[in-house]
Design goal:
By secondary structure, the protein is an alpha/beta fold. Helices cover about 35% and strands about 20% of the residues. The protein has two domains: about 15-275, Ribokinase (UDP-N-acetylmuramoyl-L-alanine:D-glutamate ligase); about 275-450, L-fuculose-1-phosphate Aldolase, CATH 3.40.225. The chain has 14 helices and 18 strands.
Length: about 450
């Protein structure tokens, strides 16, 4: 007989966004709420304007009357225990001034994203409102302008990290506790440099640039992530670093919607976490099949590993592998320990480097290589390529020898190689590397090679 179950309430930090609504769902309030919830906070909102927009353009903007914004904020403040607030599109001068008064009155971290222009190029802030931002910046915990916004706010032309620092210092002089001047629109085609300025210090964050126009909502996502992390108790630098990492992954895996440049993937982090267990189970299934078949003939001297990446994996610790590798025995092979995330270095880095060329690749393994393996590879009905490691860089060059190996492999084929082998070099064991988007395909190819031997 079913019984009535008692509730099990969940406590989360509570945050508020004060921003405009994006009818296209990629930026504004919609991006803020998705991001804040993805980072384990309860998100509330006060809508400052209504926009009719999509991935191509902003068709119209309707400012919400100040008294209606006040009603929203008061409804939230009287019922919720807020731990952080972020602002986005405010649109007009009276709204900026009223939000500045809230920032002065509320004793919580205030993250100010001075939204002025949409990713489509449409203006989102009138001239008088831009001038009124000085009062809001003076009350901010963190202000997060991009290069164009920093120029408008400080009258300093942004051309390089030095001018970004100068603009950040001007914003701090205006009263901000911290200025994060974002470098997405500045300089190097390979690296993005964000400059963080406080009264006491200057920090530069560097991360690889993602070659994508699909950045709609990236600023909203970053500032919301920072607010969420501040609500969790992170210090400002921790919150910014975490927010940048969150936003970078969101840009790396944008959503393919609309006719224009798509929005960033606000839920990429949470989707990544949800994929961890299925990925681990897939790797364990491959390992079980290899152990059951006793495939000692394909295990290299250094041991064999099977690695799986979640669909949004960016770092080795986001790949799962056999801890201690798979070793040969007198009767077959054995797994020294179980599987865990972060257990592989070399194979994981090769897999991640290959994913830079084809993000659908999810699994990899390293096998022995010799003449018999080379002959068996002829049976593989998929691209097989050879790389020459005699020109391989030292590990401290080009960032990673595994990145170099993947680059050389993908140069040789128009599609994705299923197998990449090399004949070794002085002090380097010959090796076969297998790639697959599906764990079953990886297992089938490895087993077919073992059967040929």
């Amino acid at each position: 007989m079913p019984t009535v179950r008692g509730p099990a309430p969940v406590e989360l930090p509570q945050v508020m966004t004060m921003a405009g609504s994006d009818s296209g769902g990629g930026a504004g309030i919609q991006a803020d709420l998705k991001t804040m919830e993805a980072l384990d906070t309860f998100a509330t909102s006060a809508i400052t304007s209504l926009t009719a927009q999509n991935t191509v353009s902003v068709e119209s903007i309707h400012p919400v009357p100040v008294e209606e914004i006040e009603a929203q904020v008061e409804a939230i403040r009287t019922d919720f225990d807020l731990q952080a607030v972020k602002t986005g599109m405010l649109g007009v001068e009276p709204v900026v001034e009223r939000v500045a008064s809230y920032a002065a009155d509320m004793d919580v971290p205030f993250v100010v994203d001075p939204v002025m222009v949409a990713a489509s190029g449409d203006q989102l802030l009138d001239h008088d409102a831009a001038a009124a931002y000085e009062g809001l910046i003076a009350e901010s915990t963190v202000v997060t302008p991009n290069a164009d916004e920093a120029e408008i706010l400080t009258d300093i032309p942004i051309e390089d990290p030095d001018s970004m620092q100068a603009a950040g210092q001007r914003l701090v002089e205006m009263g901000a506790d911290t200025a994060l001047v974002k470098g997405g629109h500045v300089g190097d085609e390979h690296v993005v440099r964000d400059v963080i300025v406080t009264r006491d210090d200057v920090t530069t964050l560097e991360h690889s640039r993602v070659d994508s126009d699909a950045t709609h909502g990236s600023g909203c996502t970053l500032s919301s992530a920072i607010a969420a992390r501040l609500a969790h108790g992170d210090d400002i630098l921790e919150a910014i670093e975490s927010g940048v990492a969150f936003m970078t992954r969101a840009i790396r895996y944008p959503l393919d919607v609309g006719e224009g440049p798509g929005p960033v993937h606000h839920l990429a982090n949470i989707r990544d976490r949800s994929a961890r267990q299925p990925t681990q189970e897939a790797v364990e299934s491959v390992v079980e099949q290899l152990v059951s078949a006793g495939v000692s003939s394909i295990v290299p001297e250094v041991g064999m590993n099977v690695v799986g990446a979640t669909p949004y994996a960016e770092r080795p610790e986001e790949t799962v592998a056999v801890e201690g590798r798979i070793a040969r025995t007198m009767t077959g092979i054995r797994v020294t320990r179980g599987t865990r995330f972060g257990a592989s270095s070399h194979v994981a880095r090769f897999l991640l480097s290959a994913r830079e060329h084809d993000p659908d690749i999810r699994f990899a393994a390293n096998l022995r290589f010799d003449d018999s393996i080379e002959a068996a590879l002829e049976k593989i009905d998929a691209p097989v390529v050879e790389i020459d490691r005699s020109n391989e860089p030292e590990p401290d060059e080009e960032g990673s020898t595994m990145g170099w190996a993947a680059e050389r492999a993908f140069e040789q084929v128009e599609t994705t190689p299923a197998v990449v082998f090399d004949r070794g070099d002085v002090g380097k064991e010959p090796i076969t590397r297998m790639l697959a988007s599906d764990a079953a395909d990886l297992a089938a190819r490895a087993l077919s090679i073992a059967e040929e031997l």
